[in-house]
Amino acid sequence: MSSSSLAGRLYTVGVSLLIASIAYPSQFFLFAPGFQDAASCIKALLPLNLLVLMVYWNYYLAVKTDPGQVPEEWVRSLLVPCNEERRAEGITGPRYCKTCDIYKPPRTHHCRYCRRCVLKMDHHCPWINNCVGYHNYPHFVRFTLYVSVASLYILILLIWRVRTILNDLSHFRFDSEPTTAEVILYVVEFALAIIVLFCVGMLCVYHLYCLARNQSTIEGWERSKVNRLIRRGKISPVKYPFDVGFYRNICLVMGNNPLLWLWPQQVRGDGLTFPVISHTGTITILDNKSLSKYTAIHMDA
Fold first, then answer.
1. Is residue 300 in some structural domain?
2. SS3 at position 117
3. Is 57 among the domain residues?
4. Which residue among 3, 16, 65, 223 is least crowded, i.e. fewest CB within 10 A of its CB?
5. Could you tell me the residue range of the domain that residue 138 belongs to?
6. Rounded distance, CA 178 to CA 165, Å?
7. What gap in Å lies between CA 172 and CA 175, rounded to an integer?
8. Residues acting as catalytic residues
9. Can you count the helices (H) and strands (E) in the chain?
10. What is the pTM of this model?
11. Residue ranges of the alpha helices (H) in 117-179?
């Protein structure tokens, strides 16, 4: 096992333990003793455990799902030549990865950590020991969303429990006075939940924004660079081709049924072709099966 692989496994184990350390000690030692009957306890803690289940499920899928690699048959040997006349018409050939020695489909980028090209690469995430790409991006988004909601839910329960204890003490009911160990656990759980909610919550909000605009993190960086050049008058205004509308943008990633957006499901599509708005350039290639046209913006990582 290589050192990088070992470090990646340690990251995933650490994340799994962090989730467990926030979710379970608080339930067993802090929340459960505060309920007067089992029914109230189940009613309050069942939603939390369902959230934790979805956190683990989507985390597992984000870690284990291959983000997408370029099929060997995507480009065989014959390429439509792109002369000056065709370039003037906005027609360019596919980008080429010198490291992998392959042509890259639209929105594909090379990951130096995974040492291969990834379809619609968003970023390499050490916390999942995997690239976030076309096939596992929805799992990653759902993971960050469920972590944020679960952390908020735990914070609400912690605040409720502390207020209950303070109310009992104000009425001289000292039987509910927490021990030193419980006070330490309260402080630790508060700190962990707030840190996770802030960090993962910010990440979640950013990726929901990217989801709504149908852009990856890499494409977001590229768009910022392009906008700066446009403002400086160094290049003519260009239109981002993949933003096909708020609702459709989400459907392209999370699925066509809004009721299933939060449910783990296999990503449809091949990660090679994408719907685009009109009046964008066209990439044309010839493989061993048929002449296929791919429309995309030309952006290099």
1. no
2. strand
3. yes
4. 3
5. 3-295
6. 8
7. 9
8. 125
9. 7, 9
10. 0.85
11. 137-170
